[in-house]
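re: ur question from earlier - yeah i can do the single chain one, its not a big deal. heres the input i used so u can compare w yours
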Amino acid sequence: MVKKLDVVENLCLEAEVSLLWAILRDIRKETLKGVEKLTKEQLFIPPMENEAPIGAYLMHIAEAETYWLEMMSGLQVSDKIKQEHFCNAWFDCENPNPPKEPLEPAYYVKALTNVRNLLQKFVLALTDSDLTKSFSRTNSKGETYEITFRWVLYHLIEHEVHHRGQIFFLMRKAKFK
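and the output i got, formated as tokens:
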């Protein structure tokens, strides 16, 4: 018997939205599968000198999803959800205020899932033509960009894959099983 491998499921979505959502969904599934056996200490303590904890990378993935969801939707994600993943408080920020003690592994999954559920609700309401909608953003250098929803979803895919690679590399170097 031959098994068919594909990333698109029948969600009654238009083709491009369906593909982008399926990729986002599958990447998250693999990210969580890769860290599911880590202890709360392994998620909390930096695995190598001059590196962030693996848990901080996971929360940074949720933080990026929150930021880009707000940019696309024009809505504000609740402070409760932002606080849940230590938005602007743990990873690559001016005034870090990380958790003081290890969090249970389920906490990370919940924080990632809560943000992803908001993103899912937004993405599943899009049509392929909505992917060309855009918004402007000016960076710290004063450069202004017109950013399409398609690019944001692509970027979220690229971003999670990048940090998942970092996480898995750190796990191997630290000999985490």
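The chain has a mean pLDDT of 93. not sure if urs matches, ping me
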